Amino acid sequence: MTTATANSKIADKLKFNESGLIPAIAQQHDSGEVLMMAWMNRDAVIETLETGRVCYYSRSRGKLWRKGESSGQLQKLIDFRYDCDQDTVLVQVDQLGVACHTGRRNCFYFAARDGEEVVISQPEIAVEDLYGKK
């Protein structure tokens, strides 16, 4: 069986929602830090497995989104896992740079503390520097 055929069989096992998407959680492979959550479609799953570079589906743009294509903040795939219901993906990655489009290491920087919203981390890089926008 070719790698492409094997990757297609893996994608066939997954349970995509009515929009053809599956939630994908990105986790730093060595620290266990949860970096972000995004969506994948079948093509993104196969591309991720074939290239070793994590690819998602951008709902706002309506197309594949290769993590880091505009920011340079790449995610190298270390392990591709899915849950017991086969309806959620966990990609263990080596995150090069920050994961969040706000310039933070991860997207989970809001916390509920004593009934208040608290920002628990600051950007490590300015958004302008990430995307070359002013």
TrEMBL record:
Location (main, coarse): cytoplasm
> Recorded E.C. number(s)?
3.5.4.19
Query: Where, in this chain's numbering, is Mg(2+) bound?
Result: 83, 85, 87
Chain ranges of the Phosphoribosyl-AMP cyclohydrolase domain: 36-109
Reactions catalysed: 1-(5-phospho-beta-D-ribosyl)-5'-AMP + H2O = 1-(5-phospho-beta-D-ribosyl)-5-[(5-phospho-beta-D-ribosylamino)methylideneamino]imidazole-4-carboxamide; 1-(5-phospho-beta-D-ribosyl)-ATP + H2O = 1-(5-phospho-beta-D-ribosyl)-5'-AMP + diphosphate + H(+)
Compartment annotation: Cytoplasm
- Needs which cofactor? Mg(2+); Zn(2+)
Q: What keywords sit in the KW lines?
A: Amino-acid biosynthesis, Cytoplasm, Histidine biosynthesis, Hydrolase, Magnesium, Metal-binding, Zinc
Which pathway does it take part in?
A: Amino-acid biosynthesis; L-histidine biosynthesis; L-histidine from 5-phospho-alpha-D-ribose 1-diphosphate: step 3/9; Amino-acid biosynthesis; L-histidine biosynthesis; L-histidine from 5-phospho-alpha-D-ribose 1-diphosphate: step 2/9
Q: Name one GO molecular function term.
A: magnesium ion binding
Q: How is the cofactor bound?
A: Binds 1 Mg(2+) ion per subunit. Binds 1 zinc ion per subunit.
**Where on this chain does Zn(2+) bind?**
84, 100, 107
Q: What's the top EC group for this one?
A: hydrolase
Cellular component per GO?
A: cytoplasm
Q: Name one GO biological process term.
A: L-histidine biosynthetic process
Pfam families given in the database record: PRA-CH
The role this protein plays is: Catalyzes the hydrolysis of the adenine ring of phosphoribosyl-AMP.
Looking up HAMAP family in the UniProt record yields: HisI (MF_01021)
So what family is this one in?
A: In the C-terminal section; belongs to the PRA-PH family.
Subunit structure, as described in the record: Homodimer.
The cross-references to NCBIfam families, in alphabetical order and at most eight, read: PRK00051.1 (NF000768)
Instruction: Output this protein's name.
Output: Phosphoribosyl-AMP cyclohydrolase
Species of origin reads Thalassospira xianhensis MCCC 1A02616
